[in-house]
From TrEMBL:
This is 5-oxoprolinase subunit A. One of its GO terms (biological process) is carbohydrate metabolic process. InterPro entries: Glyco_hydro/deAcase_b/a-brl, LamB/YcsF/PxpA-like. Keywords: ATP-binding, Hydrolase, Nucleotide-binding, Plasmid. It catalyses: 5-oxo-L-proline + ATP + 2 H2O = L-glutamate + ADP + phosphate + H(+). The gene is pxpA. NCBIfam families: PRK05406.1-3 (NF003814), PRK05406.1-5 (NF003816). Belongs to the LamB/PxpA family.
Length: 257
C-alpha cells in the first residue's frame, strides 16, 4: 500500500496578526514546517504551535528563510555565504530550543519561499544551506523540491533528502513552481487539488500550467498554511487519499491517526 507525508507551513502568525489556522491544520498533517522568526513568526507563537504539534505527534521541521519579515521571505536575496550559513544555523538552533521546551524535537529542515526556490538551482546558496545543516546536525533531513538539482547536491554531501510536491501550486514544464505573481500560480479549488495529488501519488505525474505532462516523484505533499482554503484543501486531500488506499505517514516514520 502506498504512503505519503502531508506537510504544511505553520507558526507564521506575528503578534496580534494571525496567519492561517494552525490548530486545525495540525489535526490533518503528518509533518509541520515551523517558521523560525526570520520570514514570519514570533517566539511565543512558535512555542505555542510546537506544543500543539507535540500533543498531536506531528513531526517538526525548521522552516528557515531569508531575513525578510516585510516580504514574508518571498523576495529574492543574495546574502554572502558567511551570512547565509550563520542565518540558517541560527534559525535551526532557535527552533531546536523552542521544540525542546515544548517536549518535541526538530527532525528536518525545509527552506522557505525565495530561499527554497533559489537553492533548488543555485549551487552556491545550496551549498551554504547544506553546510549549515551539517554543522548543526547531519542527521537532519532536508526537504526539497522534487526533481531539482538541490536533491542530488544534498545527497552527495551526505544528507538525507525528502522530495516534495505542492498541492496548491502550479508547475512549469521544467518542474519549477509558477511564479506567484502570475495568474494561476496558486490553486484554490480543493477538488481540483485532490485529483492532482491523487494522480501524483498513484502515477508520479502532474499536468503543468501549459498542459504538458511531467514526472513528479515525491514523498511529501505541501499545503501552504496561509492559503485561505488550506483546511478545506487538507480535509479533501486526506479523504481522497484514504479512498485510494494511501496511508498518511510522516517520512520519518511517525504515524498520525
Amino acid at each position: 500500500m502506498p504512503s505519503i507525508d502531508l506537510n504544511s507551513d505553520l507558526g507564521e502568525s506575528f503578534g496580534p496578526w494571525p496567519m492561517g489556522n494552525d490548530a486545525a491544520m495540525l489535526e490533518l498533517v503528518t509533518s509541520a514546517n515551523i517558521a523560525c522568526g526570520f520570514h514570519a513568526g514570533d517566539p511565543a507563537g512558535i512555542l505555542n504551535v510546537l506544543k500543539i504539534a507535540a500533543s498531536r505527534n506531528v513531526v517538526i521541521g525548521a522552516h528557515v528563510g531569508y531575513r525578510d519579515l516585510v516580504g514574508f521571505g518571498r523576495r529574492n536575496m543574495d546574502p554572502s555565504s558567511a551570512e547565509l550559513v550563520a542565518d540558517t544555523i541560527y534559525q535551526v538552533g532557535a527552533l531546536q530550543a523552542l521544540a525542546a521546551a515544548a517536549g518535541t524535537s526538530v527532525r528536518y529542515v525545509k527552506p522557505h519561499g525565495a530561499l527554497y526556490n533559489t537553492i533548488a538551482n543555485d549551487p552556491r546558496q545550496a551549498a551554504d544551506v547544506i553546510a549549515a545543516i551539517k554543522a548543526v546536525d547531519p542527521s537532519l533531513t532536508l526537504m526539497a523540491l522534487a526533481g531539482a538539482p538541490i536533491v542530488a547536491r544534498a545527497r552527495d554531501a551526505g544528507l538525507t533528502v525528502v522530495c516534495e510536491a505542492f498541492a496548491d501550486r502550479s508547475y512549469n514544464a521544467d518542474g519549477s513552481l509558477v511564479d506567484r505573481r502570475l495568474a494561476g500560480a496558486v490553486i484554490h479549488d480543493p477538488e481540483e487539488i485532490s485529483k492532482r495529488m491523487v494522480r501524483m501519488v498513484r502515477d508520479k505525474r502532474i499536468t503543468t500550467i501549459d498542459g504538458a505532462e511531467i514526472e513528479l516523484d515525491a514523498q511529501s505533499i505541501c499545503i501552504h498554511g496561509d492559503t485561505p482554503t488550506a483546511v478545506a484543501i487538507a480535509q479533501g486531500l486526506r479523504r481522497a487519499l484514504d479512498a485510494e488506499g494511501v496511508t498518511l505517514q510522516s517520512f520519518v516514520g511517525a504515524f498520525h491517526g
